[in-house]
Design a protein that fits this description.
There is one protein chain. The chain is α/β, with parallel strands linked by helices. It has one domain: Collagenase (Catalytic Domain) (3-Layer(aba) Sandwich). Helix content is 51%, strand content 21%. It contains five helices and four strands; from the N terminus they run E-H-E-H-E-E-H-H-H. Strands 1-2-4-3 form a four-stranded mixed β-sheet, with helices on both faces. A hairpin with a 5-residue loop joins strand 3 and strand 4. The longest helix is centred in the last third of the chain and has 19 residues. The radius of gyration is 14 Å and the shape is globular.
């Protein structure tokens, strides 16, 4: 059974329909032959994500999401830190709606937990295709 929780650390909780997002996450995972275990989304600011990035990944830069993977072969689980500051600046820079960009980042973490990468050659395009497919699932349902 999925156990998805949302925590706001130093920021206001984003205005998302958590039940809708939960159903969507489970649907996307199922489409990739995975089930959902314990997922925790920690919404934070740029300072917090930079701290997490430095402490755990030894990276000295801001990012929109950091995913800690605790998955087993067919069951995804993990903690995902999302910087709402970076989501907002990326949405603005890309000319996208903030809510759509936040949803993209939310599902990006799930896709990583499902085994989809975006760092190697050609992987970014594969990730974007999966993100777009997942976002269209959400838009077609609700």
């Amino acid at each position: 059974m999925a156990d998805i929780s949302y925590i706001a650390q130093g920021v206001e909780m984003p205005d998302i329909d958590q039940m809708q997002i939960n159903v969507w996450i489970e649907s996307v995972a199922r489409s990739l032959d995975k089930s959902v275990g314990v997922l925790t989304y920690i919404f934070c600011n740029d300072e917090k994500i930079l701290e997490v990035n430095r402490q755990y990944l030894k990276h000295d830069y801001y990012t929109d999401i950091i995913t800690f993977d605790y998955s087993r072969p067919r069951r995804i689980a993990g903690d995902m830190f999302i910087s709402l500051d970076t989501v907002a600046s990326n949405a603005s820079m890309l000319g996208k709606d903030y809510t759509e960009e936040l949803r993209r980042v939310i599902i990006h973490g799930v896709l990583h937990l499902c085994g989809i990468n975006d760092k190697g050659e050609g992987e970014r395009e594969i990730m974007e295709a999966h993100e777009n497919k997942a976002l269209s699932l959400l838009q077609n349902r609700y």
